[in-house]
Specification:
Layout: E1 4-13, E2 20-21, E3 24-25, E4 37-40, H1 51-60, E5 64-65, H2 68-76, E6 85-86, E7 91-96, E8 109-115, E9 124-128, E10 134-139, E11 160-168, E12 191-196, E13 205-207
Length: about 210
């Protein structure tokens, strides 16, 4: 087995679609879309959504709560989140790609909490929207140029690009920007690029 080093590049264009509904702030956090599946938190942070609120979060943006099968399909292509969330039919779980000491009990796969009898429990949400405007891919070549869809035209609103770069253990990844243009937003709240050096979405954060 070849050991791999991971780096993620995420370009997120928030556009103007965010807002409050049923006490939930939508598009309030970083998205990591894969296979049409993405993660959502409530307005006040982690683990604040009941089952009904989680459903409304997904429906608000034209999606629905993801099934266990959809979440696993996303996990298989690199979707990793250390946060339990509501799934369809009242199930709760989260996807782990690489085992970490502080999440997933050292295991990989879907950490499944099963069907919850108490729908008032508060978790995050995993939504599914196959028509979401996302882009990206998995790269293993020694050199690759990637760009937003339609380049050199401006990227669309509500676009999420998630690039996963893999190299052999011990190798380094060099990112060179040939052409880079975002909205004039010094706070990086509307559009931004984030880089991670591991699957760990907390400790692996490099910068925005």
């Amino acid at each position: 087995m070849i050991a791999l080093t991971f780096l993620f590049a995420l370009l997120w264009d928030r556009g103007f679609s965010w807002g409050f509904k049923d006490g939930v702030l939508h598009n309030s956090i970083m998205l990591e879309r894969a296979a049409g599946v993405y993660h959502r938190e409530g307005r006040s942070g982690k683990y604040q959504l009941t089952y009904a609120e989680a459903k409304s979060v997904c429906q608000y943006e034209g999606g629905q709560l993801a099934t266990l099968k959809q979440l696993e399909a996303a996990r298989k292509i690199g979707f990793h989140m250390c946060a339990a969330g509501w799934l369809s039919k009242g199930r709760v779980g989260y996807p782990i790609v690489k085992p970490v000491s502080n999440c997933g009990f050292g295991r990989t796969g879907i950490i499944d909490y099963g069907f919850r009898l108490n729908k008032s429990e508060k978790w995050d949400a995993y939504c599914y929207n196959p028509n979401g405007k996302d882009c990206g891919g998995i790269f293993t070549a020694s050199k690759h140029v990637f760009k937003t869809p339609g380049y050199p035209k401006e990227y669309e609103d509500d676009q999420v690009c998630y690039w996963h770069i893999r190299v052999k253990y011990g190798q380094r990844i060099k990112i060179e920007f040939l052409d880079f243009d975002l909205e004039d937003d010094t706070a990086c709240m509307a559009d931004y690029l984030e880089i991670y050096d591991s699957y760990d979405d907390i400790n692996g954060f490099v910068g925005r």
